[in-house]
User: What shape does this take?
Amino acid sequence: MPPIQVQFRRFTSLNTTIRLRDGQISARLSDMLEGAPEKVLHAIAHILLAKLYKKEIDSRENLRYKRFASSTAVTREIERIRAARGNKRFVGPAGRYYHLEEVFDTLNSRFFGGLLGRPALTWSECLAKRSLGHYDAAHNTIVVSRVFDRPSSPRYAIEYLLYHEMLHLKHPVRMRGLRRSIHPPEFKAEEELFPQLKEALAFIRRL
Ligand SMILES: [Zn+2]
Assistant: This one.
């Protein structure tokens, strides 16, 4: 059996592809399938391999996948993601002046002993001023507004913003009774450790 590599990618449909190249099978699935039940993933694997080797597809496996893909919950999720992602592409971490992965890695070793797993990092599509940055737990992605990607934006500003989002990675949202505690005291205490906190907040206020 050739080695198999499976990747979940950001697609706006349940797109799946498979190919055999240089003795290696690589399959690409929509990240919307990442949380699918094991039986459904098994059916997908069966269908893809049958297609690749031009074998007959077991009708039960086919039915199992079709049922899942056309279920209300799944079609609703596809619609939601399509609306959110549109046909826009994932902008990615490389900006014109700052590279988010480089900034993340620097902060990670400076403040977190390099222990935080790096999520997907991306600049926002537009020059958003309402949402300067946020951590999307569902897609494990930190989005940073493009307004920070210009020479007039000091490095400490983008560092502070990313630092804040990294603290969200470290301190997941907790329930305090019936309330969600987004910035609990230990979060705030750690935020105070950022050396240029005052300057960064002043810059953000001016924005
Ligand atoms: Zn926050």
Residues 155-170 form the longest helix (16 residues). The chain has a mean pLDDT of 88. The first strand starts at residue 4 and ends at 9.
